[in-house]
Amino acid sequence: MPRNILIICVDGLGPEYLELTPTPNLDRMAVAGGFVIGQSVIPSVTNVNNVSLITGALPRVHGITANYWLDRATGQEHYMESPDFLLCPTVLQRAQRRGMSTALLTAKQKLLRLLDAGADYSLAAESPDADMIEKVGPPEDIYSPSINHWLFRALRVVLREQDPDIAYCSTTDGMMHKYPPDAEESQRHIHGLDAILGEIVAENPAREVYLTADHGMSAKSRGLDLEKLLGATGIAARAIPIIKDRYVAHHQNLGGAAYVYLDDHRLLGDAVSALEAEPGIESVHARAEAAAQFDLLAERIGDLFVLGDQDTVFGQFETGQAQVEVRSHGSRHESAVPILAYNSPLSPTYRMNLDLVAALGIN
Ligand SMILES: [Zn+2]
User: Fold this and answer.
1) I want to staple 359 with a disulfide (CB 3.0 to 4.6 A). Which of 186, 298, 301, 348 is the partner?
2) Are residues 246 and 265 in the same domain?
3) 204 C-alpha to center of ligand 1: Å?
4) How do residues 341-359 score in pLDDT, each as one tens digit?
5) 322 and 348 share a domain?
6) In this structure, is residue 363 part of a structural domain?
7) Is residue 159 part of a domain?
């Protein structure tokens, strides 16, 4: 029997957002289908997890290890948003090979570019075509509270008019960066998504629907500048903010994980000791160990992989550290994510968000 599949990634949807917001449609789907709290890939950032989801593979296989990275071979820093970085096919490419029709919808243009391989139809809410604007109305800007609602309405139109065999839809986490789960603005946002999803499910009663998140979100109060902290002990290094993307209002380049590249490799042991002694740093992993423990691709990470505790972000600060007030992600503490499967013919065990796609059996 031909399958109709919808995969939704709600960016930044930590489980507490669902706990504190009335979501009658998601609740009904969870009861009728299956729901667990699982784990995202670490570092808990958007590009790494969206690519893990859309490929059903781990970073050591698909090659996306950050939003932003330092290419050791050239010494250049890049956003990791080109599809050229992908080392394995997406589920949309694999579906196409089976003759299935495919669609991709994202909030951010940068994500559309990264995930676009294998999409018969694609659309970013940030820059939609005139046809969709006519049907859904003009979207507000990418930082607006309504951008994800617009995206879900566009998804509804695409399912109705094109009925793709498989669709992948990914929102943006601007609202979670701005508001904690108990804020009224946040609840309006999540409740609105739930309402449109309810309409989508009512119109597509036989479609398999899978919903998860790329990462959660935590309130952070301590900022550490890893380059300056190492510099103070005589160790020259570059610290790359894994979370950095072009949408600075969301991240301010402050995230809970960093890759550190040492000028002199012989100082590796000293650097580990210095960082491990720093309050706010939860763990420090040398490259080979980090690649093994977190399933990362060793060639595309730093000499060190540094993870912050729940309260800490890494970035650039004049004096080496600072008090901050920011909601962000990247560490282990933002890796809990909801995993929902509705109308699924399978009942596999989902441990990680990417297991949803891996279990589809579209190889
Ligand atoms: Zn984010």
Assistant:
1) 348
2) yes
3) 30
4) 999 987 778 999 999 999 9
5) no
6) no
7) yes
How confident is the model over 70-101, as pLDDT tens digits?
888 888 888 888 899 999 999 999 999 999 99
One domain, residues 27 and 16: yes
Q: Are 287 and 293 in contact (CB under 8 A)?
A: no
Q: Are residues 79 and 210 in the same domain?
A: yes
Q: 158: which 2 tokens?
A: 């695409």
Residue 212 covered by a domain: yes
Q: How many whole angstroms from 155 Cα to the centroid of ligand 1?
A: 22
Q: Which amino acid is at 161?
A: E
| Residue 237 near residue 345, CB atoms below 8 Å | no
Domain boundaries, position 289: 218-328
Is the pTM higher than 0.90?
yes
Cis peptide before 241 (omega within 30 of 0): no
Q: Are residues 17 and 77 in the same domain?
A: yes
Residue 121 covered by a domain: yes
Residue 1 has a pLDDT of 61
CB under 5 Å of ion ligand 1: residues? 173
Expressed in angstroms and rounded, the spacing between residue 177 Cα and the centre of ligand 1 is 7
- The amino acid occupying position 346 is L
189-247, pLDDT tens digit by residue? 999 999 999 999 999 999 999 999 999 999 999 999 999 999 999 999 999 988 888 77
CA of 13 to the centre of ligand 1 (A): 10
* pLDDT value at residue 290: 98
Q: Which residues of 250-261 are buried (b: 16+ CB within 10 A; e: fewer)?
A: bbbbbbbbbbbb
